[in-house]
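ok so dumb question maybe but i'm new to this and my supervisor (M.) told me to 'just get the structure for Coenzyme A biosynthesis bifunctional protein CoaBC' and walked off. so i did the thing. is this what she meant?? sequence i used:
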Amino acid sequence: MGKPKVVLGVSGGIAAYKACELLRRLTESGHDVRVVPTASALHFVGAATWSALSGKPVSTEVWDDVHEVPHVRIGQHADLVVVAPATADMLAKAAHGLADDLLTNTLLTARCPVVFAPAMHTEMWEHPATQENVATLRRRGAVVIEPAVGRLTGVDTGKGRLPDPTEIFEICRRVLARGVREPDLAGRHVVVSAGGTREPLDPVRFLGNRSSGKQGYALARTAAARGARVTLIAANTGLPDPAGVDVIPVGTAVQLREAALKAAADADVVVMAAAVADFRPAVYALGKIKKKDGQEPEPITLVRNPDILAELSADRARPGQVVVGFAAETDDVLVNGRAKLARKGCDLLVVNEVGEAKTFGTEENEAVVLGADGSETPVPYGPKEALAETVWDLVVRRLA
Ligand code: CTP
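this is what came out, is it supposed to look like this??
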């Protein structure tokens, strides 16, 4: 099998320079990349750069190398087309099927998955015209990733930034791996919690746990690549924001509960992958707790935190909402898992065995997904991403 063929479409926005990094990632990871910039993209980054980085000729118009019929061939032979940055104008052209240059022709002839990474000013992104074009493209099966929030060109900040190229690459990798299968979470809003809560004791200390957040982030990334609108509630993770995902940082269990209930209100799926502390110190000391010579330390009194998963499962924000929990167990994994599934009232429970060297902070995981319907899906030891895909497969079946 040859290298996967990727077409990198670049439209005319200042973020075009970030597409150089995406191109580099794609070529270095063994993809055969053909860059198709628009004429206006060349105002930002010249043809020489694209050509040198891709090792291929670069053209913007259908009139170059006409004997090779590039306006048809490039799209027909592609395994993936990614447009980054996609301007408001490019999204409009793609939604309406215009074909006035090589990139728009390529989009019409491509039968492979297509990813758009929009970048523009917030007003342009929020304009009903753009939003309708995005909805049209998504309905037709394209993955349009949400822009990131942050500094825009000039003095403005808001939603509209091109996500980090490394993270766009991650989406491309996953979409390519799925092949021509439809983005089956398109039109769905999924909420994922990740990381571990920290319950403060005083201004410098907290009760925490060893969850890295990697499994939750893998769930968020795979959901975005399958077309979902994703809200990621991140408890103390320090991981880079995945492309196309709204990240809500939280610290404590109480903050996580508040964010989860709010996001769940219009969600189709809620996945509680975060390790939530069951207890918090009853008293928060406003000043640092000091040791006193000759005195034993004061015992720490704990109080129960709310059980967020149980609450979300019991009061579903909408009918048919699918709720997924995680269980970390050290002994009698399956028996405890079944009991926990019943106690929490969720639809699916991902049970994994944990220990000091197992699961926490690693790239791999091994689990069994228990269903409230009695099903049992073992997921062999492998990347956290593979477990995430299985979870979404099981969720999609329940949504349908
Ligand atoms: N969870 C939650 N709220 C809590 C505690 C846990 O929503 N206060 C969620 C976790 O996000 C996870 C699931 O419940 O999806 C199971 O977490 P786990 O810690 O294994 O279960 P516990 O209820 O804490 O059970 P125990 O510690 O007794 O095993």
